[in-house]
Amino acid sequence: MATAIIAIAGSLLGVVLGSALSFLAQNSLANRMHKWKLVDIKRESYADYLRSISASYAKAKAGKGDPEEADLLRATAVIELIAERKVAEQARRLQKQVTDVHAQLRQGESGVEETEVLKADQARRDLVGLFKADLDIPPEVEDSHAEGQAGVSGRPSTDQPR
Q: Which of 1, 55, 97, 102 has its CB 3.0 to 4.6 Å from that of 60, i.e. a possible disulfide?
């Protein structure tokens, strides 16, 4: 009789422990998948935001485009929903700065100085640094376009790709 009680208790304990471990494993997997999806959504949203800035600039230089900057506003709103406060605030500031500069460009105002465009571009680069930090992309992974323009990569000239 004692053997049967020990067997039943052992079986019940095994079922409880197995269920608990299974629950913990499934919960952990669900949390990781949620995190991965959020990172993917952030990456896509950040890319959409930067693309909308580039498209707005191209249209503004051509004297065309929507003064409301609907794509940029939409991308900024998404970032404000999913990103940390520091990133969201910087994105909103840049959106306003870009909208103002592009509106002046679109109107063909000669008063738009190249320095204003460069300031907006520097603010964009600063925000890209925040995007990279938020996505855990190492800061040494440089923008190859900017690296090519500057001619500087941080590596000795003998290590430069040819």
A: 102
Is 117 within a domain?
yes
Residue 20 belongs to some domain of the structure: no
Q: How far apart are CA 58 and CA 72, in angstroms?
A: 13
Q: Are 130 and 42 in contact (CB under 8 A)?
A: no
CA-to-CA separations, 63 to 60, 85, 103, in angstroms, rounded: 5, 34, 9
| The pLDDT value given to residue 159 | 43
pTM, rounded to two decimals: 0.69
Tokens 């679109």 identify what position?
Answer: 106
Number of domains comprising the chain: 1
Nearest to 65 by CA among 102, 91, 112, 101: 102
Instruction: Round to whole Å and give the CA distance between 78 and 70.
Output: 12
- Position 76 scores a pLDDT of 95
The 10s digit of each residue's pLDDT in 20-79 is 989 989 888 888 888 899 999 999 999 999 999 999 988 888 888 777 788 999 999 999
